[in-house]
Write a structure and sequence with these properties.
4-stranded parallel sheet, homodimer, globular
Chain lengths: 538, 538
């Protein structure tokens, strides 16, 4: 038996030898080993007390909660997660970098609404009369108007309202009809249009295609609010601040440059892309200054922009975008981190359609002596051998620096090998994948396959404003509870990798990593100290 | 672009180089290429006409069918599948071997009930009064009684019925109360207790733990019907005949030897294991003779038994079973194919608990000069690093010949490598995995990962009487529609592998494979001919 156990131990070690915790596994400190053990014990206890069939959550009134288990559907589990000790610990953990998030979906929907309500230029309208029957199927349309066109209407919901006429946002809210819930009903209506709810994800829209329709509609609703410069700058600031609060020290935000201008304070669509960069940079410096004033400069290393456009445009349109991207890179070399194409891979155009302009883009960079890595979305699909799945081949042949999602990458042994050889990291978005119905819950997510194959993974939130997974704590939580192999030290290594595989330059990266180590040590000490107080994480 | 496409083609070829269709990919005949193309075209057409959002199925009245897609939940899709051209083709395809099926769940539940109704010794009772309210939660209990104990009761449902008293099965059916549907209501009640229905799998029992409770209960209900020798022999015959009708030429049935005896015609529990083998062998020879009489001997190569017991017994009990298995192997060397432990891996004992007796079993075989390969269930779980997942390490360290399920094998790079090196095939049961909630539907099943890693796969039905996936056509169908890479020729190679990795001896295997090739060629010609008639598969 002794020799059997030895052989078994050796086999397990070989099998897990490519995992991030084995590769980087420097000798763990005593404190790290203790913290890891503490977290495993809490996870095991909560697997029964919180997620077991006899738990409080299971006996709750809501039907959807009848099936509780660790890593269950996020939208149903969210409130329960918030009450766990494990989540309290993870929310204090330094997360490293957020490498995959679409800027337009990074700020809490209620905060966005609050920001919008501060702007007299913003108006709202509906295409139909709002009634108790129609409200769930009727989306609010927003727009910033020039002062000359400000509307004198005061209600969106009185009988006299003529569909498609603009009402000032604040008035529409103030006078939202009592029968629809008054101002609070207004907020819920708007937030409902900006987010995916459980009955959509797990009921009415329970396929990747259907949930993508709802998902896309949230961007259509939020776009005119966010792409209004006075809101946008505050929105970016909120994104930075809330990320910092969750322990994210650096981010690379994907920004959609599909429209050529955003709306300015004057209600005209006249703010070109370069101004977006100027504004982003200004907010970045303001936040850095503020963190410094608070003595917290170690918590924020910075943020860069990944230029993105939609994967439904023509090659000619793409060429324009790529030239635009080149000139922005020349003007803002430290701010522009990479290029990507976004949108629903299963229904839009595959990368193979764009090879010629994309190759030309690489040539142009050489001519100009600049470097804009591709950071492509690829394989965000359940397809096996479909165009969306095949995007992985093209992303890799085009030398993508990282892969966005790569959900179907686990099907491709040679591509995983190349990812290891060429150090291509995968931006895995667990909660996004689950809500967008690529996986029914975390235990069925292919993440462990990737990790055990030695493919570098950075956990990401993707569109937290739509999903409700603000920060990275929720995604780290869902990953941690769905595996017995992964522990706190594994999450720490993944956080380090998010910095290592970022677009920070060498010097920035070294700094970011050394700051991370300081915070990590403090965090580990805190976990151990809280537990030894017999009072972990309370 | 030319050179890009060349590089891309090469990369795809490398990536898919370990697939069964690449490895065995002898040059395909013209007919095979045509048949493969025909099937791909039908699949593409039906992906829209049958499984598209605008299809008939989608517009059907039943809510559950609102989400239709290729590879969707089997229990909801079953009727729709039966109407497809693709299914008609696959039902004619020669399947090779069925390597993973639990004998007690291999015969259509209605057929089992019919067989049972022919036996006056069989009785039924309930623990509660059956009413319209209680019927769905009350299971029938069956038992064969000795003639002296035959019951004179005539109804299970009249007011005078005293719970727990036996009623002759035929009488209970005949006089089943009108308000419960009469005899037809009786049949539906019994069949409902023997099968899993969609509202259980996808509603009330929608987790692996919950559905296993229902699943296990079906065996408790069917056991006394099947383990009655006069039924058992007919049951085995039905298993062989229905398998043959679906194109299965050989099977290895897992038989549960947990109880020491089954009931004989005299209503006594007095038929020992060796008699089971004698009966199995007799039926086998009868069916062979009958096939010969029909000039169809090429369609049936034979069947063997995998000795199984429950993975909840003590080591002492296991030792008894293993000795039992050894003596059966000595008496029936050609009939006993292997040894396995079965039951819910997530809740029962892991293999590591049984290492000592299992190792001793191997030693005993050497002493006796016999060979009984382990063919272990392992990794039938969503766990990552749980005891059930870790069963894979032990199965492999114990030199398992094949792996039953291996659902979590995709997480283990070293173990997949060993499977390739040591030629360990995995018995993948797609529909079983889906109904037992390891995967929400076929597109999320990890099968493509295994296939692309070059792990040999045999598709299996597991417990078709409970799931309704009789034969192998349904499992082949679900796999085929969920991938654009897999084609008809891939399925053919998988069918060949099922014979190659069976426990047939060399000579038997060669024969089975050569008979398969003959039937395969006929099948391919039929596909091509039907299509050229403009009338494929009608």
């Amino acid at each position: 038996m002794e020799s059997y156990l030895q052989k078994r131990h050796q086999l397990i070690r070989e099998d897990r030898g490519r995992r991030v915790d084995a590769i980087h596994g420097k000798k763990l400190s005593d404190a790290e080993q203790r913290a890891d053990r503490i977290v495993r014990d809490i996870r095991a206890a909560e697997a029964i007390s919180v997620w077991g069939p006899e738990s409080q959550a299971a006996s709750g009134a809501e039907n959807a909660l009848l099936h509780v288990f660790p890593g269950m559907e996020f939208l149903t589990a969210r409130e329960t997660i918030l009450g766990t000790q494990l989540f309290k610990i993870l929310s204090k953990m330094p997360k490293g970098a957020l490498l995959h998030a679409h800027l337009d979906a990074t700020v809490n929907a209620r905060v966005l609404l609050r920001l919008a309500l501060g702007q007299p230029a913003l108006h709202v309208r509906t295409h139909e009369h709002l009634t108790a029957n129609s409200i769930n199927d009727t989306l609010p349309q927003f727009q910033a108007l020039p002062e000359a066109q400000f509307s004198a209407l005061t209600s969106l919901t009185d009988d006299a309202y003529i569909p498609d006429s603009w009402v000032p946002l604040q008035k529409a809210r103030e006078n939202f009809h009592e029968s629809l819930g008054g101002p609070e009903g207004f907020d819920n209506w708007v937030v409902g249009a900006l987010m995916i709810n459980p009955s959509q994800a797990y009921g009415t829209h329970n396929t990747t295609y259907k949930i993508w329709k709802k998902f896309a509609s949230t961007f259509i609703v939020s776009n005119p609010l966010i792409r209004f410069a006075p809101v946008w700058t505050q929105y970016v600031r909120e994104f930075f601040m809330s990320s910092i609060e969750d322990g994210i020290s650096y981010s690379e935000a994907r920004i959609m440059f599909w429209s050529e201008c955003m709306f300015g304070a004057d209600g005209q669509e006249n703010i070109p892309h370069r101004e977006w960069f100027v504004m982003y940079n200004r907010v970045l410096n303001e936040v850095k200054d503020e963190m410094k004033r608070q003595g917290r400069e170690d918590e924020f290393v910075g943020s860069k922009i990944i230029y993105t456009t939609m994967r439904n445009i023509t090659c000619e349109e793409l060429e324009w975008c790529l030239e635009d991207c080149l000139s922005l890179k020349q003007e803002f070399p430290h701010l522009l981190a990479g290029f990507d194409l976004v949108g629903h891979e299963d229904s839009l155009r595959p990368l193979i359609d764009y090879i010629v302009p994309l190759k030309k883009f690489v040539e142009r960079q050489k001519e100009l002596g600049i470097d804009i890595p591709f950071i492509f979305h690829a394989g965000e699909t359940l397809g096996d051998g479909t165009a969306a799945d095949m995007n992985l081949y093209d992303a890799i042949l085009l030398d993508t620096k990282r892969i966005g999602h790569g959900f179907s990458l686990v099907k491709h042994p040679r591509l995983m090998e190349i990812c290891r050889e060429k150090k291509i990291a995968v931006e895995v978005c667990p909660i996004s994948n689950e809500i967008l119905r690529l996986t029914s819950s975390m235990p069925t997510h292919p993440l462990p396959v990737l990790m055990n194959q030695g493919v570098t993974v950075a956990l990401c939130s993707d569109d937290p404003a739509v999903f409700g997974n603000m920060g990275l704590s929720f995604d780290f939580f869902q990953v941690l509870v769905a595996s017995e192999v992964t522990g706190l030290t594994t999450l720490g290594e993944m956080a380090r990798d998010s910095l290592r595989y970022s677009c920070l330059d060498t010097q920035e990266r070294e700094l970011a990593l050394s700051l991370f180590e300081k915070r990590w040590a403090t965090f580990i000490d805190w976990v151990v100290r809280e537990e030894s107080k017999g009072n972990a994480a309370n």
